[in-house]
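Lab notebook, bench 4. We co-purified these components, and the gel suggests they stay together. Before we commit to crystallization screens, I want a quick structural picture of the whole thing.
Request: model the full complex, all chains together.
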Amino acid sequence: MNRINKNERVGAIIKILTENPRKIYNFNYFCDLFNCAKSTLSEDIDIVKNIFKKFQLGEIETVTGAAGGVLYKPTMTQEQIKEFCADLCDKINNKERIIPGGYIYLNDLLYSSDVSYNIGRALGSFFQDMDFDYIVTIETKGIPIALMTARVLNKPLVVVRKEGRLTEGTAIHMNYVTASSKRIQTMYLAKKSIAKDSKVIFIDDFMKAGGTAKGIIDLMKEFDAEVIGVGILMVTKEPKEKLINNYHSLIILEEINNESGEIIVNSSI
Amino acid sequence: MNRINKNERVGAIIKILTENPRKIYNFNYFCDLFNCAKSTLSEDIDIVKNIFKKFQLGEIETVTGAAGGVLYKPTMTQEQIKEFCADLCDKINNKERIIPGGYIYLNDLLYSSDVSYNIGRALGSFFQDMDFDYIVTIETKGIPIALMTARVLNKPLVVVRKEGRLTEGTAIHMNYVTASSKRIQTMYLAKKSIAKDSKVIFIDDFMKAGGTAKGIIDLMKEFDAEVIGVGILMVTKEPKEKLINNYHSLIILEEINNESGEIIVNSSI
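Here is the predicted assembly.
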């Protein structure tokens, strides 16, 4: 490879860090890649830090010590989260989204890789300074936003199933009651999924009374694991009393007016 | 904002493009952001292109015309795909993955945001020059890799359900027969999910005889849509005759030896 100039080093560092959120790259990795001295690289990293700060592109952090290096945190500023949630509320408030039975069609948003990535960034911001082992979700619609939260926080994702599957081996299965409709449901999770004494964050797309979240908390106990955070995209205003106390949400669903066709949603931020 | 120098412009462009694969950014967007002339930006983009080429970081492409601009394509070189698949085969060949009944536990890989992103990049490479409207998958385990393929190719994702859901509105449901076990299964898809006359790519994690893929092809006909490509992470060697003819895969599952505990998998690339 020809001589590598500062522009090229800075550019390549940014590309690699951005595509691998929260993955720590040892300084030696870049020194080898660019065939440069550590002092040169330190200067480059300072430039990278300043660029991210100047344009509010998230954070670049250096970690010292043996396992040290540099990493990219895709944090959003409070202002950026607010703007994103307001924009999402605008998209949701569309009468064509109303489905008979008082539901809202959100698949196009939940399954958009772009929207789900930004939901992941926004939800991730609540848990970015916490020490935990897994992001947990339950199939199906919450998977994309949970995967993106996992990507943003660089943690493994665990998906709880609603039906047992032969292909996942021995599983723990547990009944729980949905709080809103009082129906008995089952959740399954393969024993291999979670190591003992883990701490997890539960991510889901929707919460009414919190029966599912409560179920996940109980299921985790069976794995000697603890839910230390809950992040939900959209939470209904009613019932006010949820089965769980501590959770973060981005959007509050106030009301669906079937007659006027209005969906009243507000940002929680 | 203070004066912005070349390093900063190049760095910010790379950050923004990398985080938004295949999204076209108009030159004016960057000219406004940096308060710079188009000629200056053109030079910057050339530098960005060279950095991506020099370090094999994917492609930067400029598009001319009214809707023109610049975009990042997270392509992998053939060599990079080969290396990734070989590494994945190494990870899969581990006797602790064998599950009674001849299955392989892959959740930790399929649900890893890092592995699934790279699977998305590798599978996406087969379809990157095709003109289509949606990535389609069927719940549950294929969702993360399908979402990442959708992210890499910047297309909306559509998830076919195995159970009807009230929350998605009117749906088309269809029975199909799994080719390997001859069981009748059902798939559901909300009518809102896909516009008429669409072209789609089907992505899944696993294929044996191809019954599910065949089912998706039939289901798409009900939406007046056409499957123009199929991409599967892992395909079994047997049966050789699949129900569909054209598909791309990354890994071939040759054999699971329950006695020796060996999983023989090979890269298809």
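Chain A has a mean pLDDT of 94. Worth comparing against the SEC data before the next meeting. Chain A touches chain B through 62 residues (CB under 8 Å).
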